[in-house]
Amino acid sequence: MSQGIIDNLVAELTRLPGIGRKSAQRLAFFILSMPAREAKSIAEAIINVKENAKFCSSCYNITDSDPCAICTDSSRDRTRICVVEEPSNIIAIERTKIFNGLYHVLLGALSPLDGITPDKLRIDELLHRLRNDGIREVILATNPNTKGEMTAKYLTEIIKPLGMEITRIAYGLPIGSDIEFADEVTLSKALEGRRTL
Question: In the structure, what pLDDT confidence band is assigned to residue 5 with cuts at 50, 70 and 90?
């Protein structure tokens, strides 16, 4: 067997985020050892997602039908909307099985230094939904970093005049961690977000 085809697969795999050359080599040889139908199934899934995935015209989640399954689910609480940065955030929140409202994906976070200004995000579309869809609570679930905090503050300023409840997800110490190993920012956020028992 020619090394060229393995080298080509390794080169392609290193284009994936977080995959260095050694990891790509391991994956390439794993793929080589797989039954042909399993390898084809992976290849078909990649092609299928590239050909059929699109953004929901309402919430901007990734979907293969428009509007997406969450937006069309009549059992969901249509008075609450959770605002997230990326579609992958929805997957994480849905795994908790706690939130049963709607979502809105901004497709990024504010970062003026990187040229990401409000007009580059799906903020106008969010405001349209808030004005027209009977939303009573907006949950800001942007990431707890500088960009996410800046985005949450900006959204709070422009949503507040609409008169609906605005909440922010809590954050702090992860379960199972030790306080002595927490950084100052995480620990301060945990103290700020404390609640009565």
Answer: very high
- Which domains does the chain carry? 7-35 (1.10.8.420), 75-168 (3.40.1360.10)
* pLDDT of amino acid 188: 79
- Which amino acid type is present at position 54? K
Give the span between the Cα atoms of 4 and 38, in whole angstroms: 22
Q: What is the pTM of this model?
A: 0.81
Instruction: List C-alpha distances in Å: 134 to 127, 128, 183.
Output: 12, 11, 40
Write the DSSP assignment of 6-73 as a string of letters: HHHHHHHHTTSTT--HHHHHHHHHHHHHS-HHHHHHHHHHHHHHHHH-EE-TTT--EESSSS-HHHH-
